[in-house]
Write a structure and sequence with these properties.
It is built from 17 helices and 14 strands. It is of the alpha/beta class and about 425 residues long. Among the domains are: about 160 residues, Rossmann fold (3-Layer(aba) Sandwich), CATH 3.40.50.1980; about 120 residues, Rossmann fold (3-Layer(aba) Sandwich). A six-stranded parallel sheet has the order 1-12-11-10-13-14, with helices on both faces. Strands 3-2-4-5 form a four-stranded parallel sheet, with helices on both faces. A four-stranded parallel sheet has the order 7-6-8-9, sandwiched between helices.
Length: about 425
Amino acid sequence: MTVQGTLPPTAGCRSTPVLKQRGQREVFCGLTGIIWLHRKMQDAFFLVVGSRTCAHLLQSAAGVMIFAEPRFGTAILEEGDLAGLKDANAELDREVARLLSRRPDIRQLFLVGSCPSEVIKLDLHRAAERLTQAYAPKVRVLNYSGSGIETTFTQGEDACLASMVPVLPATDARELLVVGALPDAVEDQMQRLLGDLGIGPVRILPARSITDETAVGPNTVFALTQPFLSDTCAALERRGAAHIAAPFPFGEEGTTAWLAAIAREFGVSDEIFAKVTKAPRARARKAIAQASEALCGKSVFFFPDSQLEIPLARFLTRECGMTAVEVGSPYVHDQIHGPDLELLPQGPTISEGQDVDLQLDRAREARADLTVCGLGLANPLEAEGLATKWAIELVFTPVHFYEQAGDLAGLFSRPVRRKALLKVAAE
């Protein structure tokens, strides 16, 4: 299939040497993924086994009132648990029993490890097996780590989805599995596009309910919607599924390339593809052009934060007219990030990992028009006169596919416009 507008430049960045650094890092906690996952999986509950700090993080990040009934909570490890004076497993079993008796709607229970539970070596995998035997088949109990000791915050979703793959039912059917948590409205848009292309059946991971028919087998092909799902990708391949490598669906070009890769896999004709995508592509290009006027000709510097950096840099350089100075990512995975690196024009430094002091020196020297970074760095850099964008907002905001392309460009253009207005006011 030939799809206009998706050919790579004459030389991309896939073969560019990667600057790898290890040192002090500025990252968010992996428990943060619960904030969007608990909204997605409507019959699931996320029980964090952690400290009061973990509980405060989730309450403040989610903005949940005390009277609400969210689908997450914290089994708080007290001093006696941490000191080994109590049987933490017995305490956990008691709390799970209380939770399930009070919330009979729970069909999936995730035991989420934290820094404190990992420090005391609490075996949540064995606990999940024990509780599954006690509550199956009504409740499925799984576990994963949301610890922020060695990971970046989006790996919480990756660990969660990877924990689900081994228990998915087996199938021999030829099916498309779309992997990655999306807002319901965005997921519905994607489903309509794939349906109009004649592609189906389409399964989703994570599904909104455990009763949804999500299965995997040797005839399953899957496409990722998030660039931080490397463990989930590997788990699906171990089940025999085949990965459809593609740029990620950010912006008009990325969305078209992502759909085109799936369309090729399912033998969709050029005529049908063009007919289905023509109108939404035009809307996306128009919205991007309007939202990105302030970005054209400007430079951008990415600190590593969410693993969205490479596809977003591709979007900003090729669709918004920006120049990337450095594109940092916590991890660079060629199988997953390679298609976007092929489209990213040569020029920027591609860096993996972080020594935050050295990277801050490079950012200060570059003084890019926009610096995309974590919350901990944004305010200090703003105080030094740099325009910044909070990286975490790009995860919490609907930004995938055609109808959100203009909003995605707007997220980057607003801080640039604000900086220009402040400069005029100061003069």
